[in-house]
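Ticket #349: bound-state structure for pyridoxal-5'-phosphate.
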Amino acid sequence: MASVNRDGEETYANINWDQLGFAPTPTDYMYMMKCSNGDNFSQSQGQLVRFGNIEISPFSAVLNYAQGLIEGLKAYRTEDGRVLLFRPYENAKRMQIGAQRLCLPFPSVEQFVDAVKQTAIANKHWVPPHGKGSLYLRPMLIGSGHVLGLAPAPECTFLIYATPMGNHYLTKHGAANLYIDDKLHRAARGGTGGIKCITNYSPVFEAVTQARARGFSDVLFLDAATGKYVEEVSSSNVFIVKGNVISTPPIDGTVLPGITRKSLMELALDMGYQVEERHIPVEDLMDADQVFCSGTAVVVTPVGSVTYQNTRAEYKTGEETVSNKLKAMLNGIQMGLIEDNKGWTLALD
Ligand SMILES: Cc1ncc(COP(=O)(O)O)c(C=O)c1O
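RESOLUTION: The complex was predicted; output attached.
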């Protein structure tokens, strides 16, 4: 569907919006800003450039030592055609915390949000029509400068690209079936599980690939120290529901502090649930009434089953679930259907 507004500008890119999935679709522009170590981008001026390959030295710290962070956030189109970003200030702050851990200089919160806005505006006709998906924005912060001895890069690049994304990550329309891998771990105490560094992702490929080959949607990881407690899924947080109580593992260095997680906890409290952050033994997970995952890509995805060793626990899914109510509320705010009295959405000018 390509359409044109009253001024003759194309309002939507010419793709089949009904077929939108998760394959990366190149859009028109990306944002780039560079800085040298020490100035934290305060002297830097970023700019939009045509989307395309970037040149990077084989000596760069990101290629040799994985000195890199990613973020992820979405822009949604409202029914009346406005475009809303969801909580970009939170992504900016999370990137700053990760940057300190990796000794990367980082953009200010204002620079980050301004860059995200510019990228979304430049690619506005790639924001899907209301209800058909979202424009996923991927900020990256990488050590692009030359190093050979083990040290932080002397130059760093902040880049943002954007790609349209469908609505149903992990599952087509139903619930996710998770597999607990008790041999491979995602994060250890004192490590980097709590930041969104690029090194956290390829180590889950083996477990996730094997689980998908066996028909599971994704892998749920346990804590590396004892193997007894639930941590998170490969790219989403996890919640369990028992009666009126919603529980999720605490943020203590091995679990990513998800922005969706934080938002859902607040919404659940508003809706009258009891919300707990606590260490969740696998037994409590297997004994839960309902389970769901949260994240920018999955939004809120119900979990239909969890398989641990030789046991498969099944959970209630469908209309009358906590996850369904939370998803309706969260998605309603993100898409401008429910009034945002929390100041979570940022409209593009
Ligand atoms: C490992 C991991 N956990 C949780 C999340 C959910 O975080 P958010 O809700 O901020 O997208 C993500 C996605 O960013 C992730 O990669």
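RESOLUTION NOTES: The two ends are 24 Å apart (CA to CA).
TICKET STATUS: resolved
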